[in-house]
User: What shape does this take?
Amino acid sequence: MRSTGYIYPNCLNYIQSQDRRLCRAFLWVIVMSYGFHVRDANEVDIPNLHCLGSALHKASSFSTYEYDAEAILLSMRRAVSGDGGLILKVAVDDKGAISGAILAEIFKPHHSNALFSCDIAFVSLVQRQGVAKSLIREYEHECLKRGVSRIMLGVGLGLNNEAGYQLLNGLGYSESGRMYIK
Assistant: This one.
């Protein structure tokens, strides 16, 4: 399943507690200066990313399907171990808390020898501070380093995400086809 989406604080009621675990909470959208950087994910990030992935699944149109936690954990572990077929980047704030992530797959389509990449999951917990844009730029850079010739990003979790569409259009992506689900 290659489905993606953006989730912002006003539509996902999860935050990181002092011990860096995601907890259900009421969120207030506060606009303020926000310092962060994007880096490769590491083993320490996996528990929080797993919680984030579970929350993303619950908010999506795929929530009626069972969340395969073991498969997701395996993919994240493969990505942080340097598996050439996966990319996992995180945006972290000045205190080290995760504020966004992208997990993507690199593959050869059956019709070509070229390398393609498609995001599996993409989430930003901070709105209008450049987190999503920075994650995408780092993902693009990683794809270029690995010889990827086509990058595909989507918003396919059944979420109405006009901000996500505008961001992708503004970064030079164009809509290509539509997804139909029965």
